[in-house]
Design a protein that fits this description.
292 residues, alpha/beta, 4-stranded parallel beta sheet, 56% helix
């Protein structure tokens, strides 16, 4: 498959946008996307022809969620978006830590990734791809721009040191419930090594809450301390009383539908269908695209 120039330009533009929000050097930023400094310099100079292989274009495009075919799906400033933006800003500016645990399919990841695009020195890691200790620490090191290929202990040491050298870093750990028990202890160690100089934001669904509570109840080493470092509470945005929850979902679905549905006459119908099936924004997106 030969990649077209439009896709390469989209990837290149996204790379430069990310570079503008990265506080380190060009060379370190190049490491975060797995390129050598020479290749990145060419991209920065607006060169795309024969700079990197098609596999590399695809890898970086996937990492930054750049679509080969244009997707007109619009970001809606829902209550979820606004709350997460407020949380992330708080954690970043004050170097604090929080845990968001909420329903699946409400747009947590989508909103977070969009918000982080405009935040300097804000790093996102999908923990479902980096479950073990080694995978987690090396994956985070690569994301931040630290050499992830050396001895494990050296990578971890350099990672903690470098986080202390950049301005107000923020680390978002999505799908954190997928981390292994030893990897959770590494989160605690990294938090200890960056206390007061780095913000942390952990996200997940019921599995994350259950794992932490089970660890605390079973007195597993590190879980109570980790929970304490993340403000001793689970942040939840969706209200739990049934009537309040239904009203919240109705508004959430309607806000997204209004931003993306061309036929405004069917919005209430689509929202009602989602509520009846007790489904998520993913189902709403499918319905809207089918009806466009």
């Amino acid at each position: 498959m030969e990649l077209n120039a439009t896709f390469k330009k989209r990837v290149r533009d996204e790379v430069i946008a990310r570079r503008n929000n990265y506080g380190g050097s060009d060379a370190k930023f190049a490491k975060t996307i797995g390129l050598n400094p020479s290749s990145f310099s060419k991209l920065k100079a607006n060169e795309t022809d024969r700079v990197i292989s098609d596999n590399e274009w695809l890898r970086i495009g996937k990492e930054f969620n750049v679509r080969m075919v244009s997707d007109n799906w619009k970001v809606a400033r829902t209550s979820i978006y606004n709350e997460i933006e407020s949380n992330l800003t708080f954690c970043k500016n004050l170097s604090k830590s929080m845990i968001l645990v909420d329903d699946c399919g409400i747009g947590k990841t989508f909103c977070t990734r969009h918000i982080l695009k405009s935040m300097k020195n804000a790093f996102y890691l999908d923990c479902s791809q980096y479950k073990t200790c080694q995978q987690f620490v090396r994956g985070l090191a690569k994301t931040i721009g630290v050499d992830d290929k050396g001895k494990y202990v050296d990578v971890k040491s350099t990672l903690k040191y470098y986080l202390g050298q950049i301005e107000k870093p923020l680390i978002v750990l999505d799908e954190a419930g997928d981390l292994s028990y030893p990897a959770f202890l590494e989160v605690k160690e990294l938090w200890n090594g960056t206390d007061g100089i780095c913000g942390w934001y952990m996200m997940g669904a019921d599995g994350l809450r259950a794992k932490i509570r089970k660890g605390i109840n079973n007195k597993r080493v590190g879980f109570a301390e980790l929970f304490s470092r993340f403000s001793d509470e689970f942040i939840q945005l969706i209200p739990q009383p049934k009537e309040d929850k239904t009203a919240y979902y109705r508004k959430l679905l309607a806000d997204v539908a209004k931003a993306n549905c061309n036929n405004k006459d069917i919005i209430n119908q689509l929202v009602a269908k989602c509520l009846k099936k007790e489904t998520t924004l993913r189902y709403l997106e499918t319905l809207i695209k089918v009806n466009q």
